[in-house]
Specification:
The chain has 300 residues and is α/β, with parallel strands linked by helices. It has one domain: Vaccinia Virus protein VP39 (Rossmann fold). 34% of the residues lie in helices and 19% in strands. The strands form 2 sheets. It has an 8-stranded mixed sheet with strand order 1-9-10-6-5-2-3-4, with helices on both faces. The chain has a two-stranded antiparallel sheet with strand order 7-8. The radius of gyration is 19 Å and the shape is globular.
Length: 300
């Protein structure tokens, strides 16, 4: 076997293009959002592969959405679970953060979004990025509609290399608490996604919400390639008098449809504003982290 051919085969077997040092750093079970744990020496950070790209300020289009996440954190996931040219899917696209991360790293991207408002923002953001490099224009496809229907009708079996997404957190965004009033209402920003009947975040029953979300995960399992990974970004939450371990419930749904759990990353959000919930009589936590559930499609 020729040396070049051998190297090609070895590269095809690899999960990603990371060095060993980069690999180890990204397998830590705790990450800090937006690189809050970066060393002061930025050159050393770049050398070690911590800074994957420059992170621009949160743009005015993105901040209109009530539940966004950092492109830099998504870039870490995309860089770990794919190689250049591979296909990334986000079936709950929102304002397109996963697409921005994928294109920056020269991956292909498919995004699905139910609401025209968020779809149009995602489209504008991706088009703006693609203006800097015409090659990027051919790397993404966007679908407006219900993810369940789009997955069933538009996405082929075993065609996606990696899925990264953050599904609705039930109907928690409908609750306008002190935090929502301060950070959203007073700034004339929306507190929820919208009122579409097909929005599973509008389901009143938590049990029905979970069983419906499971159907979406079933379609994600179908379209993902064998041995491919899915990363689901979620947060636990409190509703009325009960605290919900949403990440644990989502993990169970992933297992129900066939995925094999591979790990859990805690994403620390130390920059979140704190509120005196429950003071001075009742413990109510300030939730300052998200969870990234990692699962894999392992078939015999």
């Amino acid at each position: 076997m020729e040396h070049g051919e051998k190297n090609k085969i070895e590269m095809e077997k690899r999960l990603n293009e990371l060095s060993g040092k980069e690999w180890v750093r990204l397998t830590k079970s705790v990450w800090y959002e937006d690189g809050q744990n970066l060393p002061k020496d930025m050159e050393e950070a770049l050398r070690q592969g911590i800074l994957l790209s420059e992170q621009p300020p949160r743009d005015p289009l993105k901040k209109q959405h009530p539940a966004t996440f950092s492109e830099r954190d998504i870039e870490k996931l995309v860089k770990f679970f794919t190689k250049r040219g591979e296909l990334v899917l986000d079936p709950f696209m929102g304002t397109g953060s996963a697409g921005i991360a994928a294109l920056r790293l020269l991956r292909r991207f498919i995004g699905i979004e139910l609401y025209p408002e968020w779809f149009n923002i995602a489209k504008q953001r991706l088009e703006k990025l693609a203006q800097s490099n015409m090659f990027l224009r051919d790397l993404y496809r966007l679908y407006l509609g219900d993810a369940l229907a789009v997955l069933k009708n538009e996405i082929e079996d075993n065609s996606v290399d990696f899925i990264v997404t953050s599904p609705p957190y039930w109907n928690i965004l409908k609750k306008v608490d002190r935090k929502a009033k301060t950070e959203r209402v007073e700034r004339n920003l929306k507190t929820d996604y919208g009122t579409e009947d097909l929005d599973i975040g509008n389901i009143e029953s938590y049990e029905l919400f979970l069983s419906t979300l499971e159907k979406y995960f079933g379609e994600m399992y179908r379209v993902l390639k064998r041995n491919g990974y899915i990363a689901v970004i979620v947060s636990d939450f409190r509703h009325k008098k009960r605290y919900y371990l949403f990440h644990a419930d989502v993990a169970k749904l992933l297992e129900n449809v066939g995925f094999t759990l591979q790990g859990l990353i805690t994403l620390v959000q130390d920059n979140k504003r704190l509120y005196a919930y429950g003071y001075p009589t009742t413990f109510v936590p300030n939730i300052s982290n998200q969870f990234i559930l990692i699962a894999r499609k392992i078939e015999d």
